[in-house]
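=== How it folds ===
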Amino acid sequence: MARDSDDAAGGADPPPSRSADEEPPLSSSNPRLTDRRLLLALTFVVAFCSIAYELVYSELLTVFYGGTVLRYSITIGLYLFSMGVGSFLSAHLDDPAGNFLRTEVYLALAGPAGAGFMIALNAFPDVTLTVGRLALKEPLTLGLAHVPILVVGLLSGFEIPLLNELVEHREETLFAALGGLYPRRIVRGALGVFFSVSEAEGRSFSEVLGVDYLGGLAGTVVYALVLYPRYGLVVSVLVLGLLNGLAALAFAAWSARAPAARGADRSFSLARWRGVVLAGLLLTGAYGGLVANAGAVDRAVTGAYMGDRIESEYQPGKAEVTVTGFERTRYQRITTYRRDVAGDPGTETCLRLDSAIQLCESWVDSYHAGLVDVPMSASLNRSGALPGANASFDVLLVGGGDYIAVDRLRDYGVSVDQVDIDGEFLDYSREESAFARYNDDAFEYDRLNTTVGDAYNYLRGSDKRYDLILLDVPGARSDDALSLYSTEFYRLLRGHLADRGVVATWAYSEYWFPQHHKAYVETVREAGFDRYLPYSVYEDPDGDDELERGERFYLLSDGPTPTPNVSRARSDYLDAVADRYERLDWRPVPAYRGVEPNSVFDPNYDVIVDP
């Protein structure tokens, strides 16, 4: 301490080799870590977190309200707007070191809290809010759900101006070092064709902005390829909060060591900012603990949310749902649950992929009879066998990752090519006991060839033709499914049909989803399918021995019209309800005036069913 006092009083002259504007090194043992480099590293981290927060918010909005392109577009627009507002308002902020610390702690709190706020807004969908006859709940919750975007954008807008004020002195940073790695003369020459150029100078703002853009790029790539596929939305936002908290603590620890020498306000000290630092420590510790138990956190939060969402599909108090399992793959969420519906006999196990129901015990048999046995019966001869003693009958199954459809096809001795994009779900179906009773280890069928990949690309790379194509794919509930409901995809299907081949697919009801139905039918017609045969399966959901119309299916054809004869099918279910299929008629695919088909390059979003 005495030595420091002597230096302050002028008793020691600065070394002649260092100019007055240069920073003192941290220590002789670690001269590479300097204020400027630390601040540029923090710039990278905060930009990474800010853009990733917005991607989390975009995905949450898509899950709750549908319309991927719309939600991402609005989120990006609001984020950039609020960043601009934050940058403008930052002119009123003094004490850049203290305010930067505050901003990071606020972001560490606001980012994850914003995601929680969005989830909470949609956790009670059965609650209504009306004024007179005007329903306000949905527009009100939709508007409030965008508030976190504005908050994070505003705080992010403070960061660059504050960091620019802190980065004042020129030194050999990463960006400066890059100057020796690229041909500067060639670059200046190329730029000179279009702009007035000069030798590059060390401008702190351009470097801060450059690192900020680099952090934004890293945030989008790492979120899409690592965070979301591995952790999902809930844990990803906690990881981002943890990074923001660590950035705040690193800045506080560094600045507190020698505030005056580091260009910070002389009044900066841990004592003055004890409350902010303590909040940062608490948040960082809490996030660290939660991230360390990522699987349990994801299952608890998402499982509870899914249970509430499923119950909300029924009248209040009519259904009781208990989530029994939750897994996440790269492509979808797998939720198994028990449901007890008032008026239905007993409790049953169901499974959902994302928000779409995949199967329930009460109708798993009827669904797969409609998907497999009804169309197969159109290809059987009078004896119930495939035509020809040694006939080869090839089936393409798109989806069907639970292997239940494969088990049905195995009964007919046909060759099956299966294409499913989600290899993790295929593995899950092999190991999950809930499927074993339905698929009977059909994945071991010796005439099954399973390909893990995108069906669209698979068909583009194959010239094989099939006698029957079965589509066991999720309903169109988001932009992710658009390609599977496009004219391009159905043209590919049509091009892979044998001479008498047809396509069989599950379909949304035209009565419950008329806009989707019109867009879908127009897409199919545009792809070249001119005939279709609609049929349903029949169930007894309430146990009163009265059959009710259940899932809807279509056979699609561009010429041949083989009529199913369910009496020839190998299905106990169809034997019991054969009289319901006595009149099955092929019809011309209708055309709807003013309805556009859905194309990969010209989407019609009416083909998407709102979640």
